[in-house]
TrEMBL record:
Residues 5-135 form the Carbamoyl-phosphate synthase small subunit N-terminal domain. PROSITE patterns: GATASE_TYPE_1 (PS51273). Small subunit of the glutamine-dependent carbamoyl phosphate synthetase (CPSase). CPSase catalyzes the formation of carbamoyl phosphate from the ammonia moiety of glutamine, carbonate, and phosphate donated by ATP, constituting the first step of 2 biosynthetic pathways, one leading to arginine and/or urea and the other to pyrimidine nucleotides. The small subunit (glutamine amidotransferase) binds and cleaves glutamine to supply the large subunit with the substrate ammonia. Gene3D superfamilies: 3.40.50.880, Carbamoyl-phosphate synthase small subunit, N-terminal domain. The keyword Ligase applies. It comes from Dinghuibacter silviterrae. It is an enzyme of class 6 (ligase). GO terms for biological process: 'de novo' pyrimidine nucleobase biosynthetic process; 'de novo' UMP biosynthetic process; glutamine metabolic process; L-arginine biosynthetic process. Belongs to the CarA family. The keyword Nucleotide-binding applies. This is Carbamoyl phosphate synthase small chain.
Length: 364
């Protein structure tokens, strides 16, 4: 057994947890948030929407099935840090290529275990979103407090252009009958796969691409991706979406893409108390009356009163836990979006029909 090293977690409101170092030895800062999913940790860690955030995994054992090259949603780990009760260095899965410890170390992710995650999650649920610091090199609480003061608030932070692709790239069969131009704000791989598997050839563009540039692909429709940070400062994207809406071509948005579609219709977004992150959030489809169990990862939401008062959009999906807005459609246009993740891997898969609907809108 390698000897353990102490680590400290400190929250912006001064709460301190003493635990054990895991992953890289060092210091990291970000917004603390919790994910209630009991599986799919590698997909969570590589989801670019988590960029800038430190994740508490609520489930007790994380790492026990190791890591695998294909279980990723982007090219590498995007979370800023990881907090767990038991982050497991040993693993058991035939397909696994390495341990969580090696993976976090290789990707430079400072983490902490042996934390009472039940108490910590209860605290975040009560007090709401805030920043935190983890360190396995500075064990002086006063110094950590000073470091933590330098961290910007997630409220108002534009992060999408940082994680977006720098170069245009393609996914799917170039001969496919349907072409989709994607605006990448931090897209998850499986979203592109879900479109390619259904017969689309997809071109992925940097976040700040104009409609004129997107049109060069001669797309049958447009897609607005998920992504990190606050949608409110993303004026560049809102302008492009307004231009896309004028084309009257099909448009689909997921998560950050949903929030941006709302903003493009003059519906504001807001910072939620502590957000939704997990894989069992119940959503009701108001058109069919059916319930879907969904994966979610968001800390901002679309203003419910403004949506209800809008004469430009209608609500298609609501959250059955807290009545928040989960889906909208623009009246008189083939444009729709959802706050949750229909592409979720490992699942649930209840909402995959949204990709079928989107592709159907573009079929000749
Ligand atoms: N998954 C996402 O696209 C997240 C959107 C946005 N960053 C939020 O936290 O609400």
């Amino acid at each position: 057994m390698t000897p353990t090293k102490p680590a400290i977690l400190m929250l912006e409101d001064g709460l301190v947890f003493h635990g054990t170092a895991f992953g890289k030895i060092g210091t990291t800062t970000g917004e603390i948030c919790f994910n209630t999913g009991m599986t799919g940790y590698q997909e969570v860690f590589t989801d670019p929407s988590y960029y800038g955030q430190i994740i508490i995994m609520n489930t007790v054992h994380v790492g026990n099935y190791g890591v695998k090259d294909s279980d990723v949603e982007s090219t590498g780990i995007k979370i800023k840090g990881l907090i767990g009760r038991n982050l497991e260095p040993r693993f058991s899965r035939i397909q696994a290529v390495g341990s969580l410890q090696e993976y976090l170390e290789k990707e430079g992710i400072v983490s902490i275990e042996d934390v009472d995650t039940r108490a910590l999650v209860a605290h975040v649920r009560t007090k709401g979103a805030m920043n935190c610091i983890i360190s396995s090199e500075i064990l002086d609480v006063a110094k950590l407090k000073e470091e933590l003061k330098k961290v910007p608030s997630m409220d108002g932070l534009e992060l999408a252009s940082t994680v977006s692709t720098k170069e245009v790239y393609h996914v799917g069969d170039p001969q496919a009958a349907i072409r989709i131009s994607v605006l990448d704000f931090g897209v998850k791989h499986n979203i592109l796969e879900c479109m390619a598997q259904r017969g689309a050839y997809v071109r992925v563009h940097p976040a700040k691409t104009s409609l004129e540039e997107l049109e060069k692909f001669k797309p049958h429709g447009y897609f607005l991706s998920n992504g990190p940070g606050d949608p409110a400062p993303m004026d560049y994207a809102v302008r492009t979406i307004k231009d896309i809406l004028k084309t009257d071509k099909p448009l689909f948005g997921i998560c950050l893409g949903h929030q941006l579609l709302a903003l493009a219709n003059d519906i504001p977004t807001f910072k939620m108390h502590h957000g939704h992150r997990g894989l069992n959030h119940p959503v009701k489809n108001l058109q069919t009356g059916r319930c879907e169990i969904t994966t979610q990862n968001h800390g901002f939401g679309v203003d419910p009163e403004a949506v209800r008062a809008s004469d430009r959009v209608e609500i298609t999906h609501v959250n059955l836990n807290d009545d928040s807005i989960e889906g909208i459609r623009v009246k008189g246009k083939p444009a729709f979006s959802v706050q949750y993740h229909p592409e979720a891997t490992p699942g649930p898969h209840d909402s995959r029909y949204l990709f079928d609907d989107f592709l159907q809108m573009m079929r000749p």
